[in-house]
Amino acid sequence: MNVLITGGGSGLGEAVTRILAKDTKNTIYFTFSNSEQNAKKIELDCSNVKSIKCDFKKELEVIALVNQIDSLNIEILINNAYVDNATRTHFHKIPQEDFTLDFSNNIMPTIRITQAAIGHFRKKKSGKLITILSSGLANTPPLGWSCYTANKAYLGSLVKSWANENIKFNITSNAVSPSFMQTKLTSSVDNRIIDQMISNHPLKKLLTIDEVAETVLFLTKASSHINGVDILMNHGNNIK
Ligand SMILES: NC(=O)c1ccc[n+]([C@@H]2O[C@H](COP(=O)([O-])OP(=O)(O)OC[C@H]3O[C@@H](n4cnc5c(N)ncnc54)[C@H](OP(=O)(O)O)[C@@H]3O)[C@@H](O)[C@H]2O)c1
């Protein structure tokens, strides 16, 4: 399989890159923005992996990636990158321009890359889209993360439209919605809060990037009958 994963050089994305690279028949392309050194290390560790610099804040780099999609001949696109502007405060305190900025930094590049991937998949009559959302959409939205959660909700809606519009072309679109994981994205969360989360957790442990990567791996191999599904990884926190 030829796979493109955005933000595959660090955090959850790195775990996904590495798990997919274990199968030497796969060729994994991943984008990085700040993690150049780590990207080079992953390439050294895995001979079937190739990194591509793509900062979502730089339009020319996004266009360059979009223009490569046909030649990379990808079969799977994993939308994982998230540009974190750390607008983490209560909604009424977030500057209005931050909503526009977060949207243009995150949603617009994802739309452009996914449009190019769908165009490519339609020509081949086959393809898989996998998008990382957040359990914050199903659970009570976390305090201070309204901008982030709203962006994920927008993507969640697109995931369903992509699933519905493209299944006749044997293209599926699914999502994974993880709960809290310790990565760069959550590095500003106070250790005392993390200890409290673990102590209140029914499993007494937080979700790991490797557990989520296993779930993404499953979706890369899943039957086309699995379409429009969002796999929620929140230990059944909101069973109704
Ligand atoms: N951590 C959690 O609790 C949690 C929970 C639910 C969902 N998620 C989702 O999981 C996904 C991965 O997040 P993570 O937890 O692994 O956090 P992370 O370590 O901060 O990863 C974010 C990824 O986005 C990339 N990125 C950051 N700025 C970028 C930019 N300007 N242009 C392009 N790419 C950029 C990063 O690449 P570089 O390192 O190269 O800059 C990195 O690979 C995200 O979609 C996130 O929303 C996370």
Can you walk through the features of this model?
- With 240 residues, this protein is an alpha/beta fold.
- The chain has one domain (2-179, 210-233): NAD(P)-binding Rossmann-like Domain (Rossmann fold, 3-Layer(aba) Sandwich), CATH 3.40.50.720.
- The protein has seven helices and seven strands; from the N terminus they run βαβαβαβαβαβααβ.
- It has helices at residues 11-21, 36-45, 59-72, 96-124, 146-166, 191-200, 209-221, and strands at residues 2-5, 27-32, 49-53, 76-79, 127-132, 171-178, 230-233.
- The chain has a seven-stranded parallel sheet with strand order 3-2-1-4-5-6-7, with helices on both faces.
- Helix 3 runs parallel beside helix 4 (96-124) and helix 4 (96-124) packs parallel to helix 5.
- The chain is globular.
- The mean pLDDT is 96.
Largest sheet: 7 strands, parallel
Portion in beta strands = 15-25%
Q: Low-confidence runs (pLDDT<50, min 5 residues)?
A: none
End-to-end distance, in Å?
A: 38 Å
What is the global morphology?
A: globular
Number of domains as seen in the coordinates? 1
The CATH architecture is 3-Layer(aba) Sandwich
The CATH homologous superfamily name equals NAD(P)-binding Rossmann-like Domain
What structural class should be given to the helix and strand makeup? Answer: alpha/beta
Strand line-up across the major sheet: 3-2-1-4-5-6-7
Helix content: 40-55%
- Total count of helical runs of at least 4 residues: 7
**Helix and strand pattern:** EHEHEHEHEHEHHE
